[in-house]
Amino acid sequence: MSDALRDRHYDIVIAGGGMIGTSLALALAPLGLRVAVVEAIARKADAQPSFDDRSTALSRSTQRMFEAMGLWDEIVAASTPIRSIHVSDQGRFGFSHIDAEEQGVEGLGYVVINRVLGGVLQSAMTGIPGVDVICPARIVALELAPDEARASIETGNNMCRTLHCNLLVAADGSNSEVREMMGITVQQSHYGQRAVIGNLLPEKKLEHRAFERFTPQGPLALLPVADERAAFVWTVSEQDAERVMALDDDAFLTELQEQFGYRLGAFSRVGKRASYPLMLSKALRLTAARSVLVGNAAHGLHPVSAQGFNLGMRDVAALCDCIADARDDTQSLDPGARELLQRYTEWRRSDQKKLVRFTDGLVRLFGSPRRPLRTLRNFGMLGFDLIPGVRSMFAKHTMGLAGRLPRLSRGVPLE
Ligand SMILES: Cc1cc2nc3c(=O)[nH]c(=O)nc-3n(C[C@H](O)[C@H](O)[C@H](O)COP(=O)(O)OP(=O)(O)OC[C@H]3O[C@@H](n4cnc5c(N)ncnc54)[C@H](O)[C@@H]3O)c2cc1C
After folding, report:
1. How much is the pLDDT for 107?
2. Domain map of the chain by residue range?
3. CB 196 within 8 A of CB 244
4. Of these four, 80, 294, 390, 407, which has the most CB atoms within 10 Å of its CB?
5. What is the pLDDT of residue 306?
6. Closest C-alpha residue for ligand 1 atom 40
7. Is residue 312 within 6 Å of ligand 1 at its C-beta?
């Protein structure tokens, strides 16, 4: 770390330079604040855990945010649009279908590989005036005083420094250590499942269709990506995950095909696989003195509805709105003021709660072999298609357009 960084006071220190922390730093740029992003993992290829081989379905509200931030052209060039979603339940006839045209939009979402998105975000970070990226470094202790937050950071060469700031933002993911340092309790429940991810080549083209198939083990999603490949997210039970990961490519494809069926013809050429434990986590509070949670540090969702990152981006948009509004009202901006943080909590709680309930409900409704739930599920699939409003509600959540939206989520730039 250069000497210039040692004694600086920041308006905002962001703990975690993953998908959400980096997006927040970029979104804040027009406000001209002094910002530091502290990221634990060095930016070497393959090392960054947030920008890895997963694919992320970006919702419409996230698209609008990146448009407002001037980054969308680059992101869309590396993304694949989803024009329809096909939802089915293994062992049951029929399916449900959500269509972009029917919803009056061009795409329900866009699929981008995290590593590619990371490349765009990280190169946009270079040269933003007032933003320091301190990496590799981790926050190891936190002191939250009424007038400022003090974050002790340890850098790669075991040097310790203290950063002073008006607001400390925890964007350090589901197992957030900073959240613990803030004294915020988290409710976590494990689904007893792992998501196995990778990509494959289906015989038939996806043609911008995404597929969500509910199986007794858990949901299986196929998303359209570049080169006519499909990115899969296959939920398997915790006990079976090791065996599934150890299968050779042919055996793996045979099992995946059994779960998905032949709607897209035969599967071939599976790429590198990785697996992730799945849990639901909810922070019991979103703020402490001079500090706030965003992204997975605040809420961790099952990937069934592809909404974790999108929900985190709405945290980013709301926090930016609260900060921009405070700047409008007063001459001297304090981004860690208590009223500002209160406003953020009030705004974000309902969206987060609704999406946690919706996502968890989907997992439990479609994942359970219990008879009453199966009956409800039959009705659910029917209701999905027949009850007016249900399908469009699902589509609205998928697009991130439910509830009151902050400026950036509506595509309105901050300046
Ligand atoms: C299989 C799978 C598929 C998914 N698909 C989708 C999808 O299609 N759409 C969607 O919206 N969401 C999806 N998600 C969810 C999405 O990936 C997460 O919500 C998102 O990555 C959260 O980003 P984050 O920046 O909050 O946390 P993370 O990605 O966990 O990043 C946290 C960062 O903080 C750093 N860090 C940790 N501790 C410290 C410390 N003490 N000091 C400094 N830095 C620290 C880490 O190195 C990391 O870079 C999926 C998740 C999974 C598992």
Report:
1. 81
2. 3-188+279-410
3. yes
4. 294
5. 82
6. 138
7. yes
Task: Let me know how long the chain is.
Answer: 415
Q: Is 347 in the pocket of ligand 1 (CB under 6 A)?
A: no
Q: Please work out whether the CB of residue 50 comes within 6 Å of at least one atom of ligand 1.
A: yes
* Sign (positive or negative) of CA dihedral 124, 129, 135, 141: negative
Q: Which atom of ligand 1 is nearest to the CA of 172?
A: 34
Q: What stretch of H or E contains 380? A: helix 371-386
Q: How many CB atoms lie within 10 A of CB 191?
A: 20
> How far, in Å, is the centroid of ligand 1 from the Cα of 38?
15
- The span from the CA of 22 to the CA of 3, in Å, is 23
40 lines ligand 1 (CB under 6 A): yes
pTM higher than 0.85, yes or no?
yes
Which pLDDT tens digit goes with each residue over 65-117? 999 999 999 999 999 999 998 888 776 655 667 787 877 777 888 999 999 99
Instruction: Write out the two tokens for 188.
Output: 């976590």
The reply to whether ligand 1 has any atom less than 6 angstroms from the CB of 63 is no
300-332 pLDDT, tens per residue?
998 887 889 999 999 999 999 999 999 866 567
Q: CA–CA separation, 205 vs 351, rounded Å?
A: 35
pLDDT value of residue 102: 78
Which has the closest alpha carbon to 304: 388, 219, 239?
A: 219
The pLDDT of residue 58 is above 90: yes
Is the CB–ligand 1 distance for residue 218 below 6 Å?
Answer: no
Partners of 167 in the β-ladder: 12
Q: Choose the residue to mutate in 13, 56, 60 for probing ligand 1, maximizing ligand atoms within 8 Å of C-beta.
A: 56
State the maximum Cα–Cα separation within the chain, in Å, rounded to a whole number: 66
Res 1: pLDDT: 47
Coil/strand/helix, residue 338: helix
Pick the residue whose CA is nearest to atom 2 on ligand 1. 303
Q: For ligand 1, atom 42, name the residue with the nearest CA.
A: 138
- Going from the C-alpha of 166 to that of each of 37, 180, 326, 341, 352, the distances in angstroms are 14, 19, 13, 12, 25
For domain 3-188+279-410, give the CATH number. Answer: 3.50.50.60
Q: Answer whether 177 contacts ligand 1 (Cβ < 6 A).
A: yes
